[in-house]
Amino acid sequence: KLEEEKSEYSFYFKLNDLIIEDHFVVGNCELTSIDQTFFEKRLEETNSYNERISQDNNKAFYSFFNRFCNRVLITITVNAIKDKAILLAKKEVELSINALKMFLSVESITKKNLFDIDFIIHDEISEYFSFSKTTKSFDTIIDVGNHIPVKIDNQKLNELNSYGLKVVSLFLQNKKNSELYFEIESLINELGNINSTKGFHDRIVLLVSFFERIIIPKTNVKGKGLAFLKNNVLPKLISNFNDEVASQINKIYNIRDKYIHNRIEIPIDVDSLLMFKDIARIFILKLINLNNSNYESLEDVQNYFKIQILKK
C-alpha cells in the first residue's frame, strides 16, 4: 500500500539574499532559477493530465508562481509519500545550504546576515511548491531586514570547490549508515549555522562545542578539550602548527570561558576567529577522508588522533 502512495516530488524552495551566475549542485540539491517557460510547461502537463484548469484558477496559478520566477531557488526531487517527502526534502536542502555556508566564513563576518532558505527565516512568510510527476499536479505551501546578498559567480564557485565544497557535496550524495557519517552531517549543519549566528562571542562558544563533542570521549568526564585539540588534533590538521597558532587557540578558549562563566565579552580578534573557523572546515574535510577510509565511529576517530579513551 505504501508503494502505491509514493510519488516523485520535485520541491523548489526560495533562497533569500543570494545571487548566482549559473546553476550548480551541492549534495543532493541544485541551486537554480526558473522562468515563465518552466511554469507554462508544467501547467500544460497539468491540463493534459487532469481536467483543464479554470480561467480563475489559471490566474491564481500565475499570480502565485510569478513570485518564484527569476528568483534563486534550491530544488530537490524525492520519491516518498507526501508527508515524508516534505521532511526529507527540507532535511537535504538544509544540509546543502549549510555545506555551502561553511565555506563562507569571510562573508559571514562582513555581511549582516548570510543567505538562508525561506522556511528557516521565521520573521517572513515562507512559501514553496512541489510538483508531482505521478499525478502531474502542483501543491503550494505557505507557512504563516536589511540584508546584503552574497554573490556566487563561477569564479567564486571554483574557489569554493578548491577549498573542499566539491568533496563535501560528493560526501552528501553517497550516504552511509555509520555513526561517523551521521556525526559529519550534523557537523556540516552546525558549522553552517555558526556562520549565520549573529554574535561573535556566541560563535566562539558554538565552535568550541563543535570540536569537543567529537574529540572528547564520552567516558572521559574530566576530559580537557583544549589539551586534546592542541596536542592531538591540530598537529594532524595543520602542517605548520606552531606556538603562535597554539597561542591564538588559547585566546579563543579564554574568550569563551569568560563569556560563559562571567558574561564578560573580551574583544575578539577577527583574524583569530576566521582561523578557528577555517580549522573547523579542515576538521570536517579530515573526518570525511577518514569516513571514506572506513573509519565508522567516534571511537575510531579518537583512536586516529591518539586520544586516550578511559574505560568505564
The SS-based structural class is alpha+beta
C-alpha Rg (nearest Å): 22 Å
Q: Please work out how many helical segments DSSP would assign.
A: 13
Shape: elongated
Beta-strand portion reads 15-25%
Give the low-confidence spans. 142-146
The end-to-end distance, rounded to whole angstroms, is: 47 Å
Total number of distinct structural domains: 2
SSE run = HEEEEHHEHHEEEEHHHHHHHH
Helical content (DSSP H or I, runs of 4+): 40-55%
Q: How many individual β-strands?
A: 9
Largest sheet: 7 strands, antiparallel
Instruction: Determine the mean pLDDT.
Output: 86
Notes on the structure:
Helix 9 packs across helix 11. This protein has 2 domains: 153 residues, no CATH class; 129 residues, Four Helix Bundle (Hemerythrin (Met), subunit A). Strands 1, 3, 4, 5, 6, 7 and 8 form a 7-stranded antiparallel β-sheet that branches. Strands 2-9 form a two-stranded parallel sheet. The protein is an alpha+beta fold and 312 residues long. It contains 13 helices and 9 strands. 54% of the residues lie in helices and 15% in strands.
Characterize this entry briefly.
This protein is an alpha+beta fold. The protein has helices at residues 2-5, 36-49, 55-65, 82-101, 105-110, 154-162, 165-173, 179-194, 200-215, 225-237, 243-262, 270-292, 298-304; strands at 7-16, 18-20, 24-26, 29-32, 73-80, 116-117, 126-132, 137-143, 150-152.
